[in-house]
Amino acid sequence: MNQIPTMPASESPPPPHSPQPPTATSSKKKAPIAISVTNLVKKFNDEVVAVDDLNLNVRRGEIYGFLGPNGAGKTTTLNILCGLLKPTSGEAKIEDIDVIHHPEKIKTLIGVCPQEPATFGFLSGRKNLEFFGNLHLVRKKELKTRIDHLLEALGLSEDAHRPVKNYSGGMVRRINTAIALVSDPEIVFLDEPTVAMDPQSRRAVWGFIKELQEKGKTIILTTHYIEEAEYLCDRVGIIDNGKLIELGVPKELKEKYKAKTLEDVFIQLTGRRIRETV
Question: CB-based burial of residue 34 (10 Å sphere; 0-12 exposed, 13-18 middle, 19+ buried)?
């Protein structure tokens, strides 16, 4: 995998145009279900409904995007799928394993890049990866090879020896992504993975995510970046106030609503912009 450079703040961003977004292929449509959610509800204090009767299926090898503003229910849904939260009602399964009743089995299948960094600031980037790799019982030789690969792929090789507390915000996001992948999981949850990144680093991480898909990984991505969802995702679920209000291939959604972007689709559905509350 080619090394991904980090763009200093002084450099200019990449050209504004993007490659054509992906469309759902027939092979993905026929792939087995990797993640299923049925009538999922999560209430806090019996009053605040964070997830409201959510239903979805994600197929193996698919990049499925949750697009919506902060507070829409994206992160809450991911936390339930990761076993960090118990739903109020409903069902969630990963590879046909019940998330609620068998969280220990689920943890062997998934890698999670949370919205808040899960790193030790006093450790270097490499030492963070070694620590989490050891937690997953990755063999020493294999772990070194995997860490070298992740650091190179995410443009962190030259800074691997530095304490993470001295990293920029974008670099912390990238080491967070590497930690999520150090166990080589089949299912990857990426919660706002490119927040705080400069434009060039963001696009570089997009390329890395696409390479993960080429290796057969199943990815759920949450984002409020329109261009990110359009470029990366095979399908996008537009979520607002805990409800899934639309679902489809980005190109087909834009055609359905005669819209130029998914932002325009969201405006038609809700009457406001995605980032108004971000």
Answer: buried
